[in-house]
Design goal:
mainly alpha; 3 domains; disordered C terminus; YtvI-like; transmembrane helix; Sporulation integral membrane protein YtvI; AI-2E-like; transmembrane
Length: about 375
């Protein structure tokens, strides 16, 4: 290894250590201050409205911030209430048909037992009678062990459900406390937003401000463009499903289509979260017309989405599909279900760093340090 290669390796280690340390420190700081970070992001998003109320409608600054907080809180509560209403409405619709479904399923299960399971059971019991006492005792012990394992599994499953419900009960008060801090922090940060922002500008080096503005532009282009693309895809899926359900004469087609559209936000599952179990159940219960119709609706929804999604997403994010898939898997492995959103978000941040030239500057520092990058010699010139 030459001296230059040694310096390159050392600078690579320094960059890696700084990156890992920065991620670790950011994680700790975020865990301690995330209500205020969320409040600052919300103020940044709603600040145009605050400025409009203050400049165009001549609201006092405090009143403009308070009105924006009230409007945002109303929007959040209204959205959550609407989603809960749709979920409750869906469950009520399901519960209306549930007794009939249970009765039909029970009859089919009984027919299946009488026609398939019971003859096999008779053959097995006849075979057991031919076994020796030792063999019957061994078989009995095996059955008892299987029953004990099933009981243990059922107990673990019940304990898991109880622990999950306990976690939810504990989470609700914590969520309300965090929401209260976000609400209060939004007011105080929004009231002094310009002064705080000017203080940041005055104490930040010019080159960092330049990168920050470039990052803000690309963040709006990619992330907000992604949100816009998802809303468009959700709306298109809702229209397709609503049209199909109307053709199939399904009651409350509009509400069901809206729920399916909301489900489109789930990565790679989308409308299939609702439509696939629905049409499978219809096919199992003998409702062939409805089952095939729902399968066709799902197929048309997927086909149209797959045909228009690349164009919509490419115009808003311009991300490689394989990179998105890898980020989803890594995020899921590290953070579970939440990682399905964290992984792509981190990928977007890395791509933005590349777009604004930050990754290129890191690469040049690793290769050449603080020296200028050498220009290639052109033949014919000294």
């Amino acid at each position: 290894m030459t001296k230059e290669q040694g310096w390159i390796f050392l600078r690579l280690l320094v960059v890696s250590a700084v990156t890992i340390g920065g991620i670790w420190l950011t994680g700790i700081l975020f865990s301690l201050t995330y209500p205020f970070i969320i409040a600052a992001v919300l103020v940044w998003m709603f600040h145009p409205l605050i400025r409009f109320l203050r400049n165009a409608l001549k609201f006092p600054n405090v009143l403009a911030v308070f009105f924006t907080v009230f409007l945002g809180l109303s929007a959040v509560i209204g959205s959550v209430t609407g989603i809960i209403f749709l979920i409750i409405f869906g469950f009520r619709r399901i519960s209306a048909f549930l007794p009939e479904w249970i009765q039909t399923t029970a009859i089919q299960a009984q027919d299946f037992f009488n026609q398939s399971i019971f003859p096999i059971w008779k053959q097995l019991t006849g075979a057991v009678d031919t076994l020796t006492p030792e063999q019957q005792a061994t078989l009995q012990n095996g059955i008892e062990q299987l029953g004990a394992q099933l009981a243990e599994g059922s107990t673990d499953f019940g304990q898991g459900i109880a622990e999950g419900l306990t976690s939810i009960i504990i989470f609700v008060p914590s969520f309300l406390i965090v929401f209260l801090f976000v609400f209060i922090a939004f007011y105080f940060i929004g009231k002094d937003w310009e002064r705080m922002l000017q203080s940041v500008y005055d104490n930040t080096p010019a080159f960092i401000l330049k990168k920050g503005r470039a990052f803000k532009t690309m963040f709006q282009y990619r992330v907000l463009g992604f949100v816009r693309a998802q809303i468009i895809l959700m709306f298109i899926a809702s229209v397709i499903v609503f049209t199909g359900l109307m053709i199939l004469r399904v009651e409350n087609a509009l509400a069901i289509a809206m729920i399916v559209g909301i489900a489109e936000i789930l990565p790679y599952l989308g409308s299939g979260t609702i439509l696939i179990p629905w049409f499978i159940y219809m096919l199992i219960t003998g409702e062939l017309y409805m089952g095939i119709g729902l399968a066709i609706v799902y197929g048309v929804t997927i086909a149209i989405r797959q045909s228009i999604e690349p164009k919509i997403l490419s115009s808003s994010m311009n991300l490689n599909a394989l990179a998105v898939l890898i980020s989803l898997f890594i995020g899921f492995q590290l953070f579970g279900i939440v990682g399905l959103f964290v992984g792509p978000f981190v990928l977007v941040i890395l791509v933005i760093f590349k777009d604004i030239g930050f990754m290129g500057e890191i690469g040049r520092f690793i290769r050449y340090g603080f020296k200028d990058e050498p220009h290639p010699r052109i033949s014919g010139f000294k």
